[in-house]
Amino acid sequence: MTKISKKDKKSKKISEEVSTEEEVSTEEEEAQGQKTSMLDLLGALQGEKPENPEARSIMFVGAIDEEKSADLISALLVLSQQKAPNEERAKDIKIYISTYGGSADEMLAIYDVMNYCKQFCDIETIGLGKVMSAGTLLLAAGTKGKRRLGSHCRVMIHSVNGGSVGELHSIENEIEQMKALQDNYIQCLSDETSMTKRQIQTLINRKVNVYLSAEEAIEKGLADEVLK
Asked: Which of 126, 161, 160 is nearest to 141 (CA)?
């Protein structure tokens, strides 16, 4: 059996400590990279020129949740104020959307900010792959004439989903809030499309997910043209 000297043991221990420190450092660098990736994706907002098209394009992919909503709202507010000194309005913002949907509350928050920002610049929306549920209103909320869909994009509309447990009075209150939320959604969708509130309600009353092709979505005023 080979004996390990105290000196070798000490060297091995130092080596392990250095290795552990390197792993921690790598993890910290990766975490930092993840934190700054959104700013990188938006073209390093504070340093880019307002006329740079890449700096004015946003990829909105995945579930519509609080974190993604906050990122998108922040980007819209910043980009809508970036304009050249000789321009009255900022250049267009492009939002590429691919989502199965998510929170109705976050959808309405983004929708309100989009409408606010449209007084400073046009917002182009481009649906790719799938634009469903809460994402449908965001697609429709783009500037009229600048809303596009990929030729194979699927669009889906359905009623507001929710669930609640607890005392009867609490459940009744939640149901009333869900009804009010759905009425709000229908009104907003009607404002942005060629569909009336009654037509949207008829679609929702099917009690199933209503899928539309790109051409059908355009016919209903959810978008303006197929992406070329």
From this structure: 126
DSSP 8-state assignment for residue 128: E
Q: Of 133, 152, 194, 213, which one is the catalytic site residue? A: 133
Chain length of the chain: 228
Q: What is the pLDDT of residues 81-131, one digit of tens each?
A: 998 888 899 999 999 999 999 999 999 999 999 999 999 999 999 999 999
Q: Please report which helix (H) or strand (E) contains residue 57, including its range.
A: strand 57-61
Give the alpha-carbon dihedral of 128, 115, 207, 183, to 10 degrees.
Answer: 180
Q: Which two tokens stand for residue 123?
A: 């917002």
Catalytic residue chosen out of the listed positions 158, 159, 169, 194 = 158
SS3 content of the chain, % helix, strand, coil (to 5): 50, 15, 35
Q: What is the pTM of this model?
A: 0.76
